[in-house]
Design a protein that fits this description.
heterodimer, A: alpha+beta, Sulfite Oxidase, Chain A, domain 2, Immunoglobulin-like, 5-stranded mixed beta sheet, 5-stranded antiparallel beta sheet, 24 strands, about 15% helix, globular, B: mainly alpha, Cytochrome Bc1 Complex, Chain D, domain 2, 8 helices, 4 strands
């Protein structure tokens, strides 16, 4: 048999057949055979029960066919990437798919060299090294992080898209288990002086991004995070240290944190004046709109999916609130004419995304599916008309209104809010 | 018993009873409504923790001064030095024009100039018609601009380029000089439009 008409077996399959291996003079011992098998890249074979699998490895990777990706905006220093929400299950976002928003690129900071300066209205201005911070009592919390610019693409009455994916629309949302030291522990350590009411948090990136955060907030539940989903922070998430403000707009959770100044007033940085403010249409501009209101979105089915046939389908989605726990998610499968409670997947954690599901028998008709969340304060996710009414139509942050997907008779799913407004 | 063990206790007791044991529940306290959450609300420090741990090192005044580079609306944080509109024109044309355009309106990056004011809704959000405080320019430009070489401007150059940007926005006259006294005194046209967030949670509230 010549080389060219030899049956196309993978090398691994071939060497593990005694005749092939011995004939080739490649295999003298069992160890030789194993080494050759291990070196071989994994092949998809018709019958995996007939071919030994590959060995253990130091670091795992996704199945070759499973390659979810973030969606990038421009390749620029100030840019963002979005989480592929439709590809995810449960509530945790794999760390390498957590959305990004940077204003000066991702700095390369050495863990050993990083320092946090805490000063201002404190008794003992202090410099903490990472090794210092890691010695303090530690907490871990599952919390969402959402950019308040999320959803901006589905707010304009005149430009309501139909061909938008959930990733494009709401992909500036991710959920992780964050690990670190409570800010309150560190402020107790340095001694906050009477009269203090805000902090300024500042990053060590090339934008030296800074945000003012109320002292009450950071004392309540903010953490200095150095861990995410069981490992140290990813560089894109602020390695080695970020502020994490649960339930607040993402920009306040300053990454690459190098400085906290305790103050008696907000500093009015560029990101809390020029940006992240909301002109309300009545001549005023809302400032320090920090908390993320309750919101939900159906992630399945969603554009560009098409239901291949009638019958039972499970609607799946995420709900979250920056004010605490989600207590209820209702879904409508008839464009909002009637609503039923979706099932919520526990544990229902405060300021975390919650997975909701609803089993739905699609009879092949044109219809619109929607969801609306209620949080523990009783706040109900509003309609877009309610937001327009309350805030005008020219705000660009905090668009937490109800979303809708249209299912056509063909099974094709498109963004459906335009049909309702 | 720690708080965590307390809510686990009834479950343990039930398990023992199920095996024919005869123990009775020692706690009358019901587990929290959402037991899993209980594990996560732990902002408080352990009771036996010391009043201070003493980790970290004292920050010297020089160290604080080196990093404390933000500026408040009342001018706290502004360095000594000054710069005029005409000096600022030179700084701008060397360091800024490529990204912000000859008159601050052409881009390709953020528009810096629009002196057209607005009543109900802004059409643009620029220094001239949206920024509430001129002091914000100082910290922002000093830290973040020019974007590819942040931090290269001298303190005088930052004052100067601010004077020029404010001049282009028709907020200060052509002979203006910016320094630690004059910059916080600049009244920005949109200043009084800014109001604090009044959203709350709650039933029937959409703000």
């Amino acid at each position: 048999m010549s080389g060219s008409d030899r049956p196309k077996l993978s090398r691994r399959a071939w060497i593990t057949t005694t005749s092939g291996a011995v004939a080739a003079g490649l295999v003298h011992t069992q160890a030789d055979a194993l080494r050759l098998v291990a070196e071989e890249l994994p092949q998809q074979v018709a019958d995996p029960t007939r071919v030994p699998g590959r060995f253990v490895s130091e670091i795992g990777s996704r199945a070759p066919a499973e390659q979810p990706r973030r969606l990038l905006r421009a390749q620029a220093l100030s840019s963002s990437s979005r989480t592929p929400l439709a590809d995810l299950m449960g509530v945790i976002t794999p760390s390498d798919l957590h959305f990004e928003r940077h204003h000066g690129g991702i700095p390369n900071i050495a863990f050993e060299n990083h320092e946090l300066l805490v000063h201002g209205m404190v008794d003992r201005p202090t410099v903490f090294r990472m090794s210092d911070l890691m010695r303090y009592p530690q907490v871990s919390r599952i919390r969402f992080l959402e950019c308040s610019g999320n959803g901006g693409g589905v707010y304009s009455r005149t430009r309501m898209p139909t061909d938008v994916t959930v990733q494009q629309m709401d992909g500036l949302l991710s959920t992780s288990e964050w690990t670190g030291v409570p800010v309150s522990t560190i402020l107790r350590e340095v001694g906050v002086r009477p009269g203090a009411s805000w902090i300024l948090a500042e990053g060590g990136d090339s934008a030296v991004l800074a945000r003012s955060v109320p002292l009450d907030k950071v004392m309540d539940d903010s953490i200095l995070a150095y861990g995410q989903n069981g490992e140290r922070l990813r560089p894109e998430q602020g390695y080695p240290l970020r502020l994490f403000n649960p339930g607040y707009e993402g920009n306040t959770s300053v990454k690459w944190l190098r400085r906290i100044e305790v103050t008696d007033q907000p500093t009015h940085t560029r990101e809390e004046t020029s940006k992240y403010t909301d002109p309300l249409g009545d001549g005023t501009v809302r400032q320090f709109s920090l908390t993320m209101d309750a919101k939900s979105v159906i992630t399945f089915p969603s554009f560009p999916y098409a239901l291949p046939e009638q019958g039972w389908w499970e609607l799946r989605g995420l709900a979250w609130s920056g004010r605490g726990r989600i207590t209820r998610v209702e879904v409508s499968t008839n464009g909002g004419r009637s609503w039923v409670d979706a099932d919520l997947q526990g544990p229902i954690l405060p300021k975390s995304t919650v997975r909701f599901r609803h089993l739905f028998d699609w009879r092949g008709e044109d219809t619109i599916i929607m969801s609306r969340a209620t949080d523990e304060t009783g706040y109900v996710q509003p309609t877009v008309q309610q937001l327009w009414e309350a805030r005008g139509e020219r705000t660009s942050y905090h668009q937490n209104h109800q979303r809708a997907w249209k299912i056509a008779r063909t099974g094709e799913v498109t963004f459906g809010l335009g049909e309702l407004v | 018993m720690t708080r965590r063990l307390r809510w686990l206790a009834p479950a343990l007791v039930a398990a023992v009873v199920g095996c024919g044991g005869g123990d009775t529940a020692r706690t009358t306290e019901a587990p929290p409504a959402n037991a899993a959450d209980f594990l996560y609300d732990g902002n408080e420090i352990p009771e036996h923790a010391p009043a201070r741990f003493g980790f970290g090192s004292e920050a010297s005044e020089a160290r604080v001064a080196l990093w404390d580079i933000d500026v408040r609306p009342d001018g706290v944080g502004l360095p000594p030095g000054q710069g005029s509109v005409s000096e600022g024109r030179d700084v701008y044309n060397i360091h800024c024009v490529a990204c912000h355009g000859p008159t601050g309106t052409e881009g390709p990056n953020d528009r810096l100039v629009d002196s057209e004011q607005w009543d109900d809704v802004p059409t643009t959000r620029t220094v001239g018609n949206y920024w509430p405080y001129a002091t914000t320019l100082y910290s922002y430009i000093r830290k973040a601009m020019p974007q590819l070489t942040p931090g290269i401007l001298t303190e005088d150059q930052v004052y100067a380029v601010i004077a020029y940007i404010l001049y282009m926005n028709e907020i200060v006259p052509e002979d203006a000089v910016m320094n630690a006294e004059t910059l916080p005194a600049v009244v920005m046209p949109a200043r009084d439009k800014f109001v604090m967030d009044d959203r709350t949670g709650g039933t029937g509230v959409v703000r």
